[in-house]
Amino acid sequence: MTITQDSSAPLIVVVGITGNQGGSVVNALAESSKPYRIRGLTRDVNKPAAQEFAAKGVEVVAVSLTSDNATGAREAFNGADITFVVTNYWEHLDVNREVAEVKMLIDQAKTVGVKLFIWSGLESIIKVSKGKYPNVHHFNGKGEITEYGRHSGIPFVNVQSGWYASNFAKLDGMKPKKQADGSFVLALPVGPQTLLPVLDTPHDYGLFVQEAIESPEFGAGSEVLTSGEDITVGDMVSQLAEITGKKITFARIGDEEFLAATGLPRSVALEVLESLKYHEEWGYYAGKTTDASRRHLARPTRTWADFVKSTNWSSILA
Ligand SMILES: NC(=O)c1ccc[n+]([C@@H]2O[C@H](COP(=O)([O-])OP(=O)(O)OC[C@H]3O[C@@H](n4cnc5c(N)ncnc54)[C@H](OP(=O)(O)O)[C@@H]3O)[C@@H](O)[C@H]2O)c1
Ligand SMILES: *[C@@H]1O[C@H](CO)[C@@H](O)[C@H](O)[C@H]1NC(C)=O
């Protein structure tokens, strides 16, 4: 642990320390050989994750970063050299709210003189697909925010998050489903050759933020594309079967069948469906490769197989 209180060390303000990405950022910076002061933000300082970080020397601050709370955001960012910002679209499903909140945060960070604004963005699928897939709001909104940040004048870096490996263990539409004969099928509305930048997010996302801060090849104006490894969904299913010793096969299913299987309201399920089809046709990162972004990491990332081995599948594959 090199979290310091020494005022000569840069102050990094991290949004969402109780979550997957923000928690990973704090852990990576704490393990860096460089010293950092870390201020971690949450709406609830009593959450166990917040308390654990406080015990490790993180200054934990309560704030709700809604667009009507510019004053709260400015206070939370005050004195920061670097800010890391992630949103949680899935908590409210309101893209206008997501965009308004981060625009406000960019403006406030600029006001207090932040020297590097690190943003967890995603591609605008409506733009890349030229309107073919218009409904993936959790990507499109993040793309709009990235453009705003790039034009805002603040030193800005976009550290895009890869595909969470945990999606295949947690989401109803993606988990392997038990068949009448006792085997399992992982069914998606895309072909087995669909390539995904799979990331064990809590374990590894922060490494890429650390790289954006510490590696001279990245920093302001750059983009970091995170991935533990790029692997096809077909290969993921074969490896899952091999490692767990269960009979699991991949199946391509129709769009309507997939929409129903997600268990989500139709408009939300449509986001997931269109995002998968976009990944198949254009690639998650719109055809950009992740190699350069993996070159200066402080330690190796987990592969899909590593993630499978470190996950308890007993209730999922029961
Ligand atoms: N699933 C995927 O494959 C995937 C891939 C790429 C990107 N993403 C994106 O990842 C994002 C979620 O990131 P995550 O996994 O780190 O989320 P998470 O684990 O659910 O954590 C969200 C964090 O944001 C904080 N937060 C939310 N609203 C806040 C507010 N109004 N004020 C202050 N803090 C707030 C929460 O803090 P408190 O609750 O403690 O206040 C929490 O720490 C989503 O936007 C999603 O689109 C997902
Ligand atoms: C704004 O943030 C402050 C912390 O700086 C907090 O006390 C307050 O409740 C927040 N206000 C709103 C409207 O969320």
TrEMBL record:
| Name of this protein | NAD(P)-binding protein
Q: Which Gene3D superfamilies match?
A: NAD(P)-binding Rossmann-like Domain, UDP-galactose 4-epimerase, domain 1
Lineage, top-rank taxon, reads: Eukaryota
State the Gene Ontology terms under molecular function: oxidoreductase activity
Q: Domain named NmrA-like: which ranges?
A: 11-304
- UniProt keywords, alphabetically: NADP, Oxidoreductase
Q: What does the similarity note say?
A: Belongs to the NmrA-type oxidoreductase family.
**Pfam families linked:** NmrA (PF05368)
Cellular component terms per the entry's GO annotation: nucleus
